[in-house]
Amino acid sequence: MDTVSATAVVPSVVTATGHPLQCAGAWAVAVLARRSRPEEVTAADLDRVVAVVVEDAVRAAIAEKGTAAYDWWKVLFALYPNSKATHSKRPRDAAVLREALTALFAPDAVGSSAGGWPCTFCGARAGAVWTKSTLPMFDTNMALNTLPPNVPGWPVCRGCRVAAWALPYGAWVTAGSVTVLICEAPGVEREFVARNVREARRIMQLGFGARRSGARPELSAVRAVRALRSAVPAAATLWTFKNDNQDPWLRVVRTRQSLARFLAVVDGNAEPRRGWRLLELSLTKRGRDGRVETSGPDEAARLLFESDDGRGRSLLRHLHHLLHPREDSWNERDRAALTRLAFTYAEEILGMNPHLEPVATLVADWIEHGSGEPRGRLAEYRRVALNDYHLGHLLNRAQFRLMLDGRPVAAGPEDWRPFIERRPRAWEHRMLLAARVIQLLQERDVKVSDAAGSADEETERLVEQPILEPADGDFGDEMGEM
Ligand SMILES: [Zn+2]
């Protein structure tokens, strides 16, 4: 029974599947076709998208080396190194190239004579088989012989073939790598793709030289999550890969599900928002000419992602190094802001609810009132603050000292167990404790350093600027939808 009744729902020509590359490509098709979702794309839309993709590829394939237009060829080469548009022996005649590329996206044959293979990605009937020359990340020389013998390639339907070549529009691209985003909240995927489609146009016109230095896909992804203003828990995952003939690789980083909630809390509260700006400014590096070389907002966004191999940097570790430099230079307000940011991250992202006050008070009391100079005891505490064993010793001594002196003792061994036991998040407990201890001392006017931590007007102006905004501007990023 293969007959189709007149009232049957027309199957969509493009479906976003769970495959990260296909999914990014399907969203790119939707954005290029000005549809709100891939499922709304019509066959006529697909024709128009094919024309755009082919024309852009033709222009890139015949561009002179070293021109801005040639940069799009580098993008295509990173994805389809052996295709008709990128091969070193490609024709330099636009008409010949156009015909060859258009043929890749020919409609699937319909009717009973059509091939019976389901599409590798979406399961729709596929009229073509594709191999690695046209499919990114398929069958690289790192993974040979993945096709069974006598099988000419993977069946791919027209919608997924167009998606595979719309991919560079929907991905964050560099001259050698591609990053796609997967998120449980589809609106985030669309937002990320829409930003990249605008960026693709800029690369084609102006080349990579026009991209601000230090720009990173993580900031684009974080801004996409934030733009949704949704409290729905949804993790964002970034897949970054290189697909050339020599040395392909893949790297995956992801955020926690509670990222949107964390961003909302930081955005909506002056103290952690100030902390986030201070973090961004601490990560900003400028060259001698004053131009940004490392962008703080981009680097800060990176700290919200964790890599599967555990090699990523940690936001709390970075905040700890910021809060405990050798020469303490934070004034009370800025220290409070950075400390509040650390607590917000621990609560919203890590789900921690640390009970710090009794133990922090004990340590601060001991530093303030123990024998000798407070500064010497502070130095001693800083040395052991992150070490479970030595911190336990210090807490015992502090308790004993205060008791001998007849002072109130704010905490006992029950209170400090979470800080010295070897269990998950113990390091984070100790880090937050150290932040709170220094903050308490500063509130009590215990002199903990020589630096006054004064802030000049220019610094204050920078701190007051909005968070997650690159310093040198990102023209086009905030332009309306296409
Ligand atoms: Zn398909």
From TrEMBL:
Classify the source by domain of life: Bacteria
Q: What is this protein called?
A: CRISPR-associated protein Cst1
Organism of provenance: Streptomyces thermoalcalitolerans
Instruction: Give the taxonomic lineage as stored in the record.
Output: Bacteria, Bacillati, Actinomycetota, Actinomycetes, Kitasatosporales
